[in-house]
Amino acid sequence: MTEPSTPRIISLIASSTEILVRMGYERFLVGRSHECDYPATVLSLPAVTSPKFPTDGTSYEIDQRIRAIVQEGLSVYRVDAEKVKQLAPTHIVTQVQCQICAVSLRDVDAALKEITGCDPKVIHLEPYNMEGVFKDIEKIGEGLNDLEAAQRLIAKMKSELAEIYERFGNSPQRKSLVCIEWIKPLMSAGHWTPELTEIAGGNFLLGKAGLHSPILTFEDLLAADPDVLLIAPCGLPIERTMREVPLLQSHPQWKILKAVQNGQVYVADGNQYFNRPGPRLVDTARIIAEALHGPRAFSDSLQNVGYRKL
């Protein structure tokens, strides 16, 4: 590594924590967000953020709490300025794309104003698609004066994605897929998920690469009638999502969906895979490939780890 001095890094995004670890910078992490939980070794780091609303309840209740806070012009997370001061970071990594997915640059700026004697470099990320993910990895490398480590990680991710595309991307019979990113209100995935679906050999419906997740009606889902339905709500693990699935199943027309009739409905871990724009998006592409082509698509299947059949 080529950094001129020993960095002290606080990562405020789960995905950037994973990026930093994969770049070899875990030993320089001194703080994390409350959502940074992978790899498990980072859990020993002090968390410097917390949500401003209860995170239990149904998807509808969570959505309403978030909307109420955002409508007031407030961030949904808080930064512990005193704890940041004590950790004396040289670098802070945050995100400006989504106030819900990560602590925003505004949060960090507000916290830093309360801190004296602490002037870290703030690296703010803004991924909307796969190219944006790679650019953000480069941005981290540039911020740490170690572009070489960033480029190695990017090359590895691109190589692994290319292998998946080589196996499935040119499939003559491409199944259609809808990925549900929130249950109530019903939302389809956007951003990088359509690109990963194309890499995995599927046709993505009801969402476009690089754009925010669109709100749907159940009629939209019926009209699309995908071959495969993947349910991966943002920020929710599989067990939590399984408690929400009955909201979909209770719709009187649920059973007429092609994916339901053919047993092609899957619940995936949106928290760990689909909504973290970092190295494990490769695993997300694998999960989609397995949903499209079967769990034997890979010798080390992610079934019952990253997803399960409903």
Features:
single chain, globular, Rossmann fold, about 15% strand, about 300 residues, 12 strands, alpha/beta, six-stranded mixed sheet
- Number of structural units classed as domains: 2
Going by CATH, the architecture of the largest domain would be: 3-Layer(aba) Sandwich
**The level-1 CATH class of the largest domain:** Alpha Beta
Structural class: alpha/beta
Computed CA radius of gyration, to the nearest angstrom: 20 Å
State the major sheet: 6 strands, mixed
The chain-level mean pLDDT equals: 87
Annotation field: number of helices: 12
CATH fold type of the largest domain: Rossmann fold
Low-confidence stretches: 62-74
Q: How many DSSP E strands? A: 12
- Portion of residues in beta strands equals 15-25%
Q: What's the CATH H-level homologous superfamily of the largest domain?
A: Nitrogenase molybdenum iron protein domain
Describe this structure as you would to a colleague:
This protein is of the alpha/beta class and 310 residues long. The chain folds into 2 domains: 9-126, Rossmann fold (3-Layer(aba) Sandwich); 171-309, Rossmann fold. The protein contains 12 helices and 12 strands. Strands 7, 8, 9, 10, 11 and 12 form a 6-stranded mixed sheet that branches. It has a 4-stranded parallel sheet with strand order 2-1-5-6, covered by helices on one side. A two-stranded antiparallel sheet has the order 3-4. Helix 6 (147-168) runs parallel beside helix 12.
